[in-house]
Amino acid sequence: MIIKLRFTLMLLALPVICCITSAATITWTNVSGGNWNLPANWSPNQVPGGSDIAIFSTPGSYNVFVTDTESVSNLVLGAASGTLTLNLSGGAFTVNGTGEGQRPISPCH
Questions:
Q1: Is residue 3 part of a domain?
Q2: Is residue 92 part of a domain?
Q3: pTM of the entire predicted model
Q4: Fewest CB atoms within 10 Å of the CB: 5, 35, 64, 85?
Q5: Containing domain of residue 90, as a range?
Q6: Which positions ≥6 away from 4 have C-beta within 8 Å?
Q7: Hey, CA dihedral for 50, 91, 44, 81, is it positive or negative?
Q8: Percent of the chain beyond pLDDT 70?
Q9: Per-residue pLDDT tens for 60-72?
Q10: How far apart are CA 8 and CA 30, in angstroms?
Q11: What phi, psi does 63 have (nearest 5°)?
């Protein structure tokens, strides 16, 4: 009975653990700008996906180019100085959750 109960509890906990660990917080690191879809521009070295939080907190003025369809759970803009320009030159960009910023956010058309 105890073994069966432990196994059942482990199975019940598995979906919760998977859900908790699936989202990542990924920070842009390239102060020269560059392509959104290049893992080397992010820390850790991976492109944010639809369940991830993308953070732009690196000071500086730079352009980030989105040339295909991308989505994130949350987008956080919070660099202490500079201007971030997010250039959509193809595809689409979707924020599934919220966008946050410590500085004013202006759309660029």
A1: no
A2: yes
A3: 0.71
A4: 5
A5: 23-101
A6: none
A7: negative
A8: 71
A9: 999 999 999 999 9
A10: 46
A11: -110, 135
Place of tokens 């509890």: 9
Backbone phi, psi, residue 49, to 5°: -115, -175
pLDDT tens digits, residue range 26-62? 999 999 999 999 999 999 999 999 999 999 998 999 9
Beta pairing, strands 70-72 & 93-95: parallel
| 14 within some domain | no
- Residue corresponding to tokens 């879809």: 37
The residue written with tokens 């953070």 in the block is 55
Helices (H), 23-102: none
Q: Report pLDDT for 102.
A: 57
Q: How far apart are CA 19 and CA 31, in angstroms?
A: 32
Tokens of 80: 């202490």
Specify the residue for token string 């020269």: 32
Contact 29, 42 (CB under 8 A): yes
